[in-house]
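Q: How would the structure tokens look for this protein?
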Amino acid sequence: MLLTDWARRYVDRLTGIDPRTRVDYRREVDRHISLMVHTSRSGLIMPATIGNITADDVQDWVRLQEAGQPDAKAGRWFRRPASPKSTANRHGLLWCIVQAAIDHQYRIHGPRCGP
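A: Here is the predicted structure in token form.
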């Protein structure tokens, strides 16, 4: 499943949050988490799925948040660098999304025995 699809499902199914928080989380997914891609060992860049993202992909995504994306026009930004707090908040949301997928898989298939 695409990472953004799983992330939207996760946000939509959260309980105990107010409507504004849900809207804020959806915005974070659509504007920022959607930028994550998976880079294979061969260097092929492909869409991030909940099953293929790696620590390297997350690190590349965090660096993208920190650096921003300059526009071709001098002195302009396509996407401004994020503050350390915004980057940490987005990383925390991503962690919760991935953890929910791990928990979901565990509940469906049960604990794995052996290597």
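Residues 9 and 102 are 14 Å apart (CA to CA).

The first strand starts at residue 37 and ends at 39.

Upvote if useful.
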